[in-house]
Amino acid sequence: PSSFYPRREFKLPNILSEDKVKHLLKSTTNLKHRCILAMFYGTGMRLEEMCHLKMSCIDSKNAAVKVENGKGNKDRMTILPKTLLPELYRYHKTYRPKVYLFEGRIAGKPMSNGAMQVAVRQAMVKAGFEKGKYSAHSLRHSFATHLLDAGADLHTIKVLLGHSSIETTMIYLHLQKCKRARLVSPLDQLKLAADGQ
């Protein structure tokens, strides 16, 4: 029976507000690291996917990114922020990546998961955020939540994130702020103060 097993604790993921994302990007002076952060937030890609993102998968003309061999070995398309294009051009001109967008010390080889995680964590600390609170995945969560707040539907977000089940995507309903902001508490509905009670 299920009663024999302890309930798995449900925790909402940490996300950054739009103001925090702005502050993070502004305080990151390293061009490569800033592009990495912007790509995580702007595309919603996973860490493994970002490390293995090839130059050939960037479609600047259509503002799209092809994610190859995502979770479950599935390919998908996600959006590429148009405002990031000038920065990416500058990054490309400076670093000259050959195969992967973000390469490690060896040309033609992808940046390792560990190195990318360290770059993200260092940027978070430099921005003054609580150590260990946010990660690359926090930017992915922020991407999805802010899209939902902006009016995107759950199915579209599910496709962009590469989720196999809509139930996984539904967690962002808990993080959505715009609908909560419009809610009125039943106590406020009573208007006790206005009635002089």
Structural write-up:
The structure is a single chain. With 197 residues, the protein is mainly alpha-helical. The chain has helices at residues 18-27, 31-43, 47-51, 85-95, 113-126, 136-149, 154-161, 166-169, 172-175, 178-182, 186-190, and strands at residues 58-59, 64-67, 76-79. Strands 1-2-3 form a three-stranded antiparallel beta sheet. A hairpin with a 4-residue loop joins strand 1 (58-59) and strand 2 (64-67). The longest helix has 14 residues, at 113-126. It is globular. The relative contact order is 0.15. The mean pLDDT is 89.
Low-pLDDT regions: none
Helix content: 40-55%
Strand content: 5-15%
Mean pLDDT: 89
- What is the CA-CA span between the terminal residues? 51 Å
The main β sheet shows up as: 3 strands, antiparallel
The Cα radius of gyration reads 20 Å
Going across the biggest sheet, name each strand in turn: 1-2-3
Q: Secondary-structure element order, as H and E?
A: HHHEEEHHHHHHHH
The strand count comes to: 3
Shape, please? globular
**Count of DSSP-assigned helices:** 11
Structural class call reads mainly alpha
